[in-house]
Amino acid sequence: MIETGLLMIILLVVSFISIIILALIITRMLDKIATLKAEIEKLKGSLNEMDEQAKLIVRTDMELNKTQEDLDKKITGLYSLQRLSRAISTTLEEGQIFQMIELHYLEELGFEKACAFLWDDSAKHFELNMHSGYAREEADGIISAVNSQKDNFLGLIRNEKTLSSITKSSAEANFKEEIPAIFKIASFVLSPVLPKEGEKGLFFVGTDNGETVLNEGDEELITILANQLGQALENARLFDKTWRSQQGLEQKVEERTRDLSRALAKLEAVSRRKSDFISSVSHELRTPLTSIKGYAAILLTGKLGDLPKDIRERLDKINRHSDELVHMVNDLLDIARIESGKVAMRKESLNLKSITEKISDLLSVQLKEKHIALIIDTADNAASISADRSQFERVFINLLSNAIKFTPEKGKITVTSHKTDAGVQVDVTDTGCGIPEAALSAIFEEFYRVDNAINQEVKGTGLGLSLVKHIIEAHGGKIWVKSKVGTGSTFSFTIPNEA
Fold this sequence. Notes:
With 499 residues, the chain is of the alpha+beta class. It has helices spanning 2-88, 94-97, 103-108, 136-148, 150-159, 173-183, 216-244, 250-301, 309-340, 352-362, 364-369, 389-406, 453-457, 464-474; strands at residues 113-120, 125-132, 163-164, 187-193, 201-207, 347-351, 373-378, 384-388, 412-419, 423-430, 479-484, 488-496. A hairpin with a 3-residue loop joins strand 11 (479-484) and strand 12 (488-496). Helix 9 runs parallel beside helix 14 (464-474) and helix 10 packs across helix 12.
C-alpha cells in the first residue's frame, strides 16, 4: 500500500511538472504569435505607405506631363503667332494680307479651318476674303449662312467683342450655339478685324476635333492675331492713300504720316501685350512647378520612407525636368522684363579678364570632358567695362556654353577683347560645326534653333541667344555673328565706353 501511494505521488508530481512545462511552451508560442502579428501589422503599414508614395509619384508625374504639354502648346502658339505676324507685315497690299495666312501656321495653333470676311457697306453684305480647310462649295455655303444672320455678326464688330466656344456671356448664348452648324466645326474662335479706316470684318478659326479643348490662351492668341490683321489692313490702306496722294498736298501727307505713327504705336502696344502675356503665362507655370519640385524633394529625402531604386530614379527624372522647366520659365520672364524695360541694369566698373576667368572655371568640367582648349586674350586697354555684373556673367555663360556644345573634342575656343571707337568689343570664336548662312539672320530670335545633328540630340529652348541679345542691347551695345559651316563661328558684341 505504501508503495502504491508513493507511486501515485510520483505520478502526480510528474503530471504537475508536465503541465507546468506545457504551460510554458504554450505561453512562449502565444508570445511568438503576438510578435508575428505585430510584424504583420508593421508590414501592412509599410505596404500602405509605399502604396501612397506610388500614388503620389504617379500624380506628380501626371501633373508634370500636363504642365509640360501646356507649356509646349503655349510656346508653339507664341512662335506660330510670331511667324504669322511677320508674314502679314511683309506686304502693304490689302488684297494679299489674308493670303499670307498659311494653314500650317493655324494648325500649329490647334486649328485646321479658317475664314476671313469683310463687310461691304455699299452692297450691305459680307464678302469672303480668305478660307482654309474648306472646299469652295463649303465656303460659299458658309458666307451665305453668315449673310443670312448678318445682324448677329455685325453686332460682334460693333461691340468689338471676340466670341468663342468658351465664351460665358449670356448675351450671345443663342448665337454662339449656331456657330458650329454654320462653320461645321466643334470648337471655334471668332474675333473682329477692326482697321481704323475702311471695311471692318471678322476672322474665324475652328477645329472639328472634338478632343481639342480650347482655353483663354487660345482665345487671346487669336484676338491678338485679329488685331494685327486690322492693323495690317489699316497700314495697307494708309499706304495706298499716301502713295496716291499728290506731292503738293503736304498737309494730307503729314496727316497720313501721323496716322502711320499711331499705327506703329499700336503695333508696339501689341508687342508689349505679347511680352505681358509671356510673363503672365510664365508666372502661372511657376506655382505648379514649385509644387511638383517640392513633392519630389520631400519623397527623395526619405522622410516618408525608403524608396525602391526604380521609384527614386523616376523622382530624380521629375526633379531634373522640373529644373529644366524652371530655367526655361526664368529665361522667358527675363526676356519679357527686359523688353518691357522693367529690369534696370545696375552698372558698375568690372574687370573683363576676371569675369571671363570666373566663367571658364565654372565651365571647366565641360571643357575637360571634351578636351577643349580655352584661350583668353584681353587687351590691357579693354580690361575695364561698365556693366551689370550678374547679367554680364550670363552673357558669357550662354556664349561659352554654346561654343562648348558645338565644338568637337580637342577643339579650341578663343575669347578676345579690344578697344574700339564705340567702346570694348569682345569676340568668342570656336572651331565647331558652324551655322548655315540662311540661319544667321534668325539666330537671335526667340525659340529659334538651327536644324543640325547636335541640336537634334541635345534638348534646348532656343532662348539663350535671344536673352544674350536683350542683355547686350539693354547695355547700349550690339551683337552679331559670323560663321561658316564646318569651320566654326565667331560671336561678337560691343559694350559702350564708361560714362
